[in-house]
UniProtKB/TrEMBL annotation:
The lineage of its organism: Bacteria, Pseudomonadati, Bacteroidota, Sphingobacteriia, Sphingobacteriales. This is 4-hydroxy-tetrahydrodipicolinate reductase. CDD domains: DHDPR_N (cd02274). Belongs to the DapB family. It is found in: Cytoplasm. Its main location: cytoplasm. Residues 106-244 form the Dihydrodipicolinate reductase C-terminal domain.
Length: 252
């Protein structure tokens, strides 16, 4: 498979290595110094594009891929207000697009179990719930896209919570919890060199239940993005990373 990499930062470099290990070829690399190379002609040399740039540049890059008719995998977070417009274009024009706030297999298992847990907790209203996320200090968006997906999974399945609010809390300080009963607090911490930790905490007077995912490095995100590129290359339509996985319980 021939791949165009849009964004050659921390993630782009790991994706390149994993893609080459899986015998794919990188035919285009775009970063801020060579944006003028992002042309339809250059993009069309690739079977699929993988976009991991910045919240401010992702939409322009995605639009270039769609204009060129090249399937695109998008990992960049912090621009998702534009998803409905992209969905409409994919449906109207038969284009291929897959996005995910987190491409790691482990996190997608976490997303699934998080929804099941929220459903169970409807029966136990004396627990309150909050989400905590920790990322490296260079992260541009807050809360993390992954934390938003976790919060949406809770809100869609736990009757008591209607919307999320976010508090960005300095290292070493306790977060201030001004959430009302129907608001789900997402507490964000920025600590040097943490690739990503997310915890869902159900707390009551008698005990706490903590459900946690810790990324040890960025390889899981990158492998998932390359798997998404392999998965989408001959498809058409608008997909989220959850469409790639089947976590049906089959008692095997
Ligand atoms: N979905 C996931 O699984 C997942 C996992 C990790 C990170 N992310 C997200 O991916 C994005 C990138 O993360 P990162 O850690 O590689 O960040 P990074 O800051 O290391 O890399 C971003 C790169 O984009 C480049 N860039 C700037 N303008 C550009 C443009 N117009 N076109 C192309 N590239 C441009 C920057 O120069 C930089 O090299 C972030 O939004 C991050 O939150 C998603």
């Amino acid at each position: 498979m021939k791949i165009a990499l849009l964004g050659y930062g921390k993630m782009g470099k790991i994706i390149e290595k994993i893609a080459m290990d899986r015998k794919h070829e990188i035919v285009l690399k775009i970063d801020q110094d060579n944006i003028s190379d992002l042309t339809a002609d250059n993009l069309q040399k690739a079977d699929v594009a993988i976009e991991f740039s910045t919240p401010h540049t992702a939409l322009t890059n995605i639009t270039e891929c769609l204009n060129a008719g090249v399937p695109v995998v998008v990992g960049t977070t912090g621009w998702h207000d534009s998803l409905p417009a992209i969905k409409q274009r994919c449906e109207n024009e038969g284009l291929a697009f897959i996005y995910g706030t987190n491409f790691s297999v482990g996190v997608n298992i976490f997303f699934h179990v998080n929804k099941m847990l929220a459903k169970i907790m409807n029966g136990y209203s004396y627990y309150d719930v909050q989400v905590e996320e920790i990322h490296h200090t260079q992260k541009l968006d807050s809360p993390s896209g992954t934390a938003i997906t976790i919060a949406e999974g809770i809100i869609d399945n736990l009757d008591a919570k209607k919307q999320w609010i976010n508090v960005l809390t300095a290292e070493g300080l306790e977060g201030t919890d001004n959430a009302t009963a129907d608001e789900l607090l997402i507490e964000s911490y920025r600590i040097d060199s943490v690739p990503g930790t997310h915890t869902v905490i159900y707390d009551s007077e008698v005990d706490s239940i903590e459900f946690k995912h810790t990324a040890h490095n960025r390889n899981g995100f990158a492998l998932g993005a390359v798997m998404a590129a392999e998965w989408i290359q001959n498809k058409k339509g608008f997909y989220s990373v959850e469409d790639m996985f089947d976590f049906t319980l089959n008692n095997k």
